Amino acid sequence: MSSLVRVTLAGLAAATLAACASAPAAPDLTPPPRRPVDAKTQLEYGNPPPPPPGRY
Questions:
Q1: What's the whole-model pTM score?
Q2: Average pLDDT, whole number, for the chain?
């Protein structure tokens, strides 16, 4: 094999490894915390209802 072919193959192998090594992180799917109810809302609507029970 000529040296140009070897260098090209080595470059392609290095580029392939670099592309596989930089995978994006998984997104955080947890819901944000509930906002606290302020005094005005409590006066207008009363205390908020309790949170619903967990699924199943």
A1: 0.36
A2: 81
